[in-house]
Write a structure and sequence with these properties.
This protein is α+β, with helices and mostly antiparallel strands. It contains 2 helices and 4 strands. A 4-stranded antiparallel β-sheet has the order 1-2-3-4. Strand 1 and strand 2 form a beta hairpin. The protein is elongated and about 45 Å long.
C-alpha cells in the first residue's frame, strides 16, 4: 500500500501503529521478527508477528539475510546491535 494513502487513512480514522523488532536464537541462528500493532482509540484492532530474516556475523559485522524482499535491513540491524550490545 502506498505510504501516503496509508498515512491519510490512519489520520482520518485515528489509527496508531507500533512496529517493533525482536530477535530469537534457535539452533545456532538468530532470527529477526517484526511485530506490528494497530490501535484505534486505544484498542488493538490488528496485530501480527512475521519472521523477516536471519542475522549473521561475518568479519565482525552483522548482516541480515531477508526472507522476503520488502525489509528495512539497516533498521533491523541497528535494533539488533543496540539490543545485543547493551
Amino acid at each position: 500500500m502506498d505510504k501516503n494513502i496509508k498515512k491519510v487513512i490512519h489520520t482520518a480514522f485515528d489509527f496508531n501503529e507500533i512496529v517493533e523488532y525482536s530477535f530469537r536464537k534457535l539452533h545456532g541462528f538468530t532470527f529477526a521478527f517484526k511485530s506490528e500493532f494497530v490501535f484505534r482509540k486505544g484498542n488493538i484492532t490488528s496485530a501480527s508477528i512475521t519472521p523477516v530474516g536471519i542475522i549473521y556475523e561475518e568479519n565482525d559485522e552483522f548482516y541480515l539475510a531477508p526472507l522476503y524482499g520488502d525489509v528495512e535491513i539497516d533498521e533491523i540491524i541497528r535494533n539488533y546491535v543496540e539490543e545485543e550490545i547493551i
